[in-house]
Write a structure and sequence with these properties.
Blueprint: H1 2-13, E1 18-19, E2 26-27, H2 30-41, E3 46-47, E4 54-55, H3 58-78
Antiparallel strand pairs: 1-2, 3-4
Amino acid sequence: MESVALEATKRSTQERSLKCMECGKTFVHRCNLISKKKSHKVEKPYKCMVCGDSFIHNGHLTSHKRIHAFEKLCSNSNST
C-alpha cells in the first residue's frame, strides 16, 4: 500500500513538460496530450452558460451544471 502512495506522489510531482498549444493544459505522458489534442477537434454543441465549457453530450453538460449549483449553494450558505 505504501508503494502505491509513493508512486502516486512521484507522478504528481513529476514535471509536466508536454503542453497542449490549444488550451495550455500540461501532461506528463504523451498519450494523454494526444487524447487532449483530439478532444479539441470534436464538435461540442452543448455549452455551459455559466463558464463557457462545452460538451459533446447533453448529459455531460447536465452533470457539469451540478458543479455550479453546488458552488452557488456554498456561496449562499457562506453569506448568511
